[in-house]
Amino acid sequence: MVQYRIRVSTGCSFYAGSTNQVKMWLVGQHGEAYLGSCLRPALPGKEVEFKVDVKDYLGPLLFVKMSKKCTLQDDAWFCNWISVQGPGTNGEEFKFPCYHWVKGTGIMTLAEGTGCTVVSDRKGLYKKHREEELQERKKIYRWGTWKDGLILNMIGDTKEDLPADERFLEDKRIDFEASLAKGLAELAVKDSLNALASWDSLDNFNRIFWCGQSKLAARVRDSWQDDAFFGYQFLNGANPMLLRRSTCFPERLVFPPGTEEVQAQLEKELQEGTLFEADYALLDGIKANTILCCKQYLAAPLVMLKLQPDGNLIPMAIQLQLPQLGSSPPVLFLPTDPPMVWLLAKCWVRSSDFQLHELQSHLLRGHLMAEVFAVATMRCLPSVHPVFKLMIPHLRYTMEINARARNGLISNFGVFDQVVSTGGGGHMDLLKKAGALLTYRSFCPPDDLADRGLLGVPSSYYGQDALQLWNIMHSYVKGIMDIYYKTDESVKEDYELQAWCREITEIGLQGAQDRGFPISLQSLEEACRFITMCIFTCTGQHSSIHLGQLDWFTWVPNTPCTMRMPPPNTKDATLKTVIATLPNFHQASLQMSITWQLGRRQPIAVTVGQHSEEYFSSPEAKAVLQKFREELAVMDKEIELRNAKLDIPYEYLRPSLVENSVAI
Fold first, then answer.
1. How many CB atoms lie within 10 A of CB 533?
2. Where do the Lipoxygenase domain residues begin and end (predicted)?
């Protein structure tokens, strides 16, 4: 007889334990042994340990199989992992990662956690398992089309349609729903306190500026009208994705008569390489919302800015609309205009930034892209595949948070329809336009920053941190990939990896190969770059866009969700015009409530690289992960020291704040 010691870990969620007994089998290279109903799962967060005697030595272990016995009811069990040591106390220990809900009476098979590719599995020991696993997964994880013309998503209308493994665990669900209730309660209080109040001053926004704002939000309230503060946000605010260095004047920039001096100043900055632009032309032609029978308005601004030697980015001119054939050139708003005229022009830019931030930079480039990666990963990569093990920690909760967004934020009669100027259908048109412009290079910071002329800009802390985090992640990915792929040929021959890449580009992204996304990976470096892009998008890129909302959007005049008057085409605006254009108190209150709920620091969160799940069991892979964590800690400390010297600390890519997945 041969003895094995078995340890089984149950998840920490409140309902993770089970009263059902579990039957188990051990499968090794030399045979299989049925252990009977030997396991009753431990309480949540606990382990259970027991020993079993097996007639013959099974050889190196490949699988653990298990099946629940549901005598009276099916009591789902969340299994973290199973460890088997043997034969005897000196035998090798094999770890079998699970991290799934075990439901029903079907047999679940867990592969040993070292991982292998189809190329390295020369004996075909895992061939049948990986084929059956993917066959079953493809029945569950199917592509859906929420709206025609958008990139694809996980099929299902609501969060309840998702597989149990994609749902929030209890702690996350309770926190999310409690914060929503708190935000709605505060909204009701603010509405009742301000329903009869008159709004005739920008200071009136202080009436709703309470509960949940950050320290920087208070600074925004005090400084939002300053030109340098306005310019800073293009570099390091909530949406640093639009700014680019000018190499020539934008085609749309037409100089009206009397602006020759401005043109000369812009020419000078252009020649010196210090002229920058932010173009919101994507908003041109998008239909504006109608809220409670009141028409809302959109603009499509162009902002020209100069980078000063002290690092400040200062606006030089704002054009709110594109030129129209047969019409006079659009008004060019300037810092020398009357204060309220210039302020209103900047408010229009900031409102336009709200639209592109939330829909293009945040929803599309963060949430929806991550969902494409998630569905493709579940459909194409078996759990034994090293790239599955690399990707899966960075896909946690993405499907549910996106399902909630589709049924709350951007649904019919959702938040966008209620208070955002692109709501009522314009947001869908904008997503389609933006989706057609997604390029592979724009998701890779070394390329994106180079293309936008931001490499080496000392005051671009987003750029510096994005590049550093990308390099750390690329090193981590390469370290793992070097364990499993020794040649470029081994990458080319891995048909599971190739299918995953093709599924993302051709199916999920609806044929994005014409915009640089690969449909095959021809070398180890290409594979490392593509995987790094996926992980960075789900972590650093999303956090750099998400974390700034609470700071920059809570003081509503700085980033208005909607505008209630048309964009000006004259320079006679007054304070009354500005107040009449900005959101009313209910719209502003709802913007603040949603911003707080979604933008607050999440108490139930896993920061990048700090996931507790151990998908890799080999010492080599664990060493690579440990090095990754050490490099993240060094970066975090460097940012802390740098920020101590800055007037406005930049923290949105600080590893201790970056979430490990798109989970909020």
1. 25
2. 116-664
Query: Average pLDDT in the 155-169 region?
Result: 96
Closest CA to 320 of 573, 583, 557, 546: 573
Residue 586 is labelled as binding a ligand: no
Residue that wins the pLDDT comparison between 69 and 652: 652
CB 203 within 8 A of CB 427: no
Among candidate residues 62, 86, 112, the one where a domain is terminated:
112
17 is in an annotated binding site: yes
H-run or E-run covering 466: helix 461-484
**CA gyration radius, the chain:** 27
Q: Which of 112, 135, 150 is the last residue of a domain?
A: 112
Decide if 542 is inside a domain: yes
CATH code (residue 526): 1.20.245.10
Q: Which domain holds residue 506?
A: 364-548+623-643
Token pair of 544 as six digits: 């750099």
Name the band, by pLDDT with cuts 50, 70 and 90, for residue 327.
confident
Reduce the DSSP state of residue 333 to 3 states and report it. Answer: strand
- Cβ-count burial of 219 within 10 angstroms (0-12 exposed, 13-18 middle, 19+ buried)? middle
The pair phi, psi for residue 396, each rounded to 5°, is -65, 130
pLDDT tens digits along 251-273: 999 999 999 999 999 999 999 99
Q: What is the largest CA-CA distance in the chain?
A: 97
For the chain, first and last CA: distance in Å?
Answer: 52
Range with the lowest mean pLDDT among 189-203, 279-293, 372-386, 573-587?
189-203
Residue 660 lies in a domain: no
User: Residue 245 has what pLDDT?
Assistant: 98
**99 occurs within a structural domain:** yes
In the predicted model, what is the mean pLDDT of residues 388-411? 97
Domain contains 596:
no
Cα(97)–Cα(109) distance, rounded to whole angstroms?
A: 11
Q: How many independent structural domains does the chain possess?
A: 2
The answer to whether the beta carbons of residues 419 and 559 sit under 8 Å apart is no
- DSSP, res 607: B
DSSP bridge pairs for 302: 279, 319
Please say whether the dihedral angle defined by the alpha carbons of residues 525, 530, 535 and 540, taken in this order, is positive or negative: positive
Higher pLDDT, 213 or 339: 339
CA distance linking residue 565 with residue 320, whole number of Å: 13
- Residue 535 assigned ligand-binding role: no
Consecutive H or E run containing 218: helix 215-223
Model pTM?
A: 0.97
Residue 195 pLDDT level (bands cut at 50, 70, 90): low
Percent with pLDDT over 70 in the chain: 99
Give the model's confidence band at 196: pLDDT under 50 very low, under 70 low, under 90 confident, else very high. Answer: low
Region 574-602 average pLDDT: 92
CATH number for the domain harbouring residue 85: 2.60.60.20
Q: For 227-238, how does the pLDDT look when each residue is reduced to its tens digit (9 = 90+)?
A: 999 999 999 999
Helix (H) or strand (E) run with residue 128 in it: helix 127-140
76 appears as a binding residue in the annotation: yes
Residue 70 DSSP label: -
Which H or E run contains 426? helix 426-435
Query: What is the band of 181 on the pLDDT scale with cuts at 50, 70, 90?
Result: confident
Q: In what order do the strands lie in the sheet with 47-54?
A: 47-54, 2-10, 77-86, 92-102
Q: Which DSSP symbol is given to 164?
A: G
| Contact between 284 and 309 (Cβ < 8 Å) | no
pLDDT for 89 equals 83
474 assigned to a ligand binding site: no
